[in-house]
Description:
- The structure holds two protein chains of two kinds.
- Chain A is mainly alpha-helical.
- Chain A contains 14 helices and four strands.
- Chain A has helices at 3-25, 28-54, 61-78, 84-106, 111-131, 133-136, 161-184, 186-196, 198-204, 208-234, 244-257, 263-283, 290-303, 313-317, and strands spanning 142-143, 149-151, 155-157, 236-237.
- In chain A, strands 1-4 form a two-stranded antiparallel ribbon.
- Chain A is globular, with a radius of gyration of 19 Å.
- By secondary structure, chain B is mainly α.
- Chain B has a domain at 29-225.
- Helix content of chain B is 75%, strand content 3%.
- The longest helix of chain B is centred in the N-terminal third of the chain and has 32 residues, at 13-44.
- Chains A and B meet through helix 5, helix 11 and helix 13 of A and helix 5, helix 10 and helix 12 of B.
Amino acid sequence: MTRHTKIYWAGFAVVMAVLIVAPLVLPEFWRRFLTEVLIWGLLAMSSDLLIGYTGMISFGHSAFFGLGMYGAAAALLMFSPPNLWLAIGFGLVGAAGAALFVAYFSTRLRDIYFAITTLIFSQIFYVIIFTWTKVTGGENGLIFSRPHFSIPYLLDIRFTSTTLHWFVLAVVTGSYLILRRVTQSPFGMVLQSIRENEARTRAIGYPVQRYKIVSVMLSGIFAGLAGVLYAVQNEFAAPDFVYFVTSGDTVIFNVIGGIGTLVGPIVGAGFFQLLRELMSRIFGDQFPYLIPVGFIFIAMIIFLPQGLLGFARRWLNK
Amino acid sequence: MDAVIHFFQTFPYELLLIQTINGIVTGMILALVASGLTLIFGIMDVVNFAHGELFMLGAYVGIIVISSTGNFWLALVVSSLIVAILGAAIQVTTLRPLLGRDPLNTILATFGVSLILQNFALWQFGPVSRKLDQPITSHFNLFYLQYPWYRILITILSAAMIGGLYAFLKYGKFGIWIRATTQDRVMAQAMGIPVPLVHTGVFALGAAMAAASGVLFGPLGSVNHTMGLDWVLKAFIVVVVGGMGNLGGSILAAIFISLLESYASIWVDPSQAVIVSFVVLILTLLFRPTGLFATPK
């Protein structure tokens, strides 16, 4: 074990310990808050695979998030008693389907064009979900009850806000470790090479478009997982989350936290939510907190394009 | 066969004609929005995410001017000027420092601008939709409809503005500077063209066009803080379908897509008719990724 790996895993253990203990000490409101930050963090982290590693900005992550959400809703409403694992399965299949569709078309384009087409595609899903009232509940969305945490023949317990936090934490940590492994694998190296120089990567002989499709799908699947978790936590699915605002927030989390770090986007999500909470406490609910957030966002792009965790980017990816 | 004959016999031809006119009217406004976007993209490599918000602000400033002076045409001019100044300020403060960086930074920065403008509008004007009064209320008879002259006037005005832009780019001194900068930024600078000024001027011009279309569109629909996204999305589709940076292509694409959408809304709900433009986009991406109306080089 090198010194770097030792420090890295020690830091990892400390952060994990804090996050495991947190729900035991925090009051109910902040416990929920922290769980939600983790879920938004997972969504942002999934999009970091595209922005930070493959060099493609997705403005359409709300589609994957939303399909995960509605997939979970479908499973929870169709089967009785509602089953957590079926919800996850349905959500992931939904998100993967959407991701395949988006990836197939939008990876034909690069840079700005990619960003625009992902935005437009996510809007397609929004329009479908918003207008197909019979199935999706339209504007009102769908309401369902939270599934139990169950392992067949062994265990069947009801989620409390603490155990739900641990479950979300486990899923997010697992996703982080998988994504970290992916970015360090030969596959991830090719993605980073596409970011650095696409033409050269193609010239070396890698099928660039296929790599891009896989990275969009991978990213979409993890975004869908975040959608499932959000649905399980809040017990509803609403078209608002498929709307562009969710995608925009995802990009903001990434830029604020630091792209290409995987943990940065989670920090960014936490920073954003905390800022929002603080401002609505100080200035009242009606305060347009997105105006100061917008100024911070622009200032960060100009002066600190690496984001809050940018200084640790190399170290985190070693 | 009988079914086909029946289809043509009962086909609502008058409706088809009405929808053709409607499609051209919205198409011309869309073309005006999209040509501002294309102009900015073609010269600065900047995709202006805040373009829809400039459109929305233009409509709001129009409402304010009309309610204080009562004159629609004054509102059109004042709103364009104010938003042009705002556009110049945005360009100087947020886009100029990003010159030379990865163009993806500019789409992020303009996204930040759109966030600020949209929430400013929500904060200042509230969530309730407002309405702009039509300057001309007279109608003419179109089959069973009383068709407003105002819509015809918009079409002509939009066409005149786009034509004016074209002539300006072709013959005006500043227009020639703009075209020179598009072709070769470094060379233009070497020849003594003040490139930073050209960038700021172009952004202001694009912003003014967005604002003008916002005021013109105002009386046709409702004005609210979220209208920007719908329009910028449509303009993006138009710009991709027409070929990025291609002024003529985006005008044709704007009319083409608006026509298709208004034909589609004969049979389906207008909110679902949007899907037609998505389909056009997908087909374009599949078969002509460089744009439907792009001239092969």
